[in-house]
Amino acid sequence: MARRAAIIGGGVIGGGWAARFALMGWEVRVFDPDPEAKRKISEVVAGAARALPMLYETSMPPLGSISFHATVAEAVEGADYIQESVPERLDLKHKVYAEIQKTASDSAVLASSTSGFKPSELQEGAARPGQIIVAHPFNPVYLLPLVELVPGPQGAPEIVTTARSILTEIGMFPLHVRAEIDAHIADRFLEAVWREALWLVKDGIATTEEIDNAIRYGFGLRWAQMGLFETYRVAGGEAGMRHFMAQFGPALEWPWTKLMDVPEFTDELVDLIAGQSDAQSGHLSIRALERLRDDNLVAILRALKGQEAGAGKLIADHDAQMRAPLEGSVPLVTVRRVVPVDWTDVNGHMNEGRYGQVFSDASEELMIHVGADRAYIDAGHSYFTAEANVKYLSETHAGETIFVETKVLLGEGKKLRLWHEMKRAQDGELLATCDQFLLHVSLDTRRSCPPLNHVRDRVEHLARMHAEA
Ligand SMILES: NC(=O)C1=CN([C@@H]2O[C@H](COP(=O)(O)OP(=O)(O)OC[C@H]3O[C@@H](n4cnc5c(N)ncnc54)[C@H](O)[C@@H]3O)[C@@H](O)[C@H]2O)C=CC1
Ligand SMILES: C[N+](C)(C)CC(=O)CC(=O)[O-]
Question: How far apart are CA 323 and CA 401, in angstroms?
Answer without folding.
Answer: 16
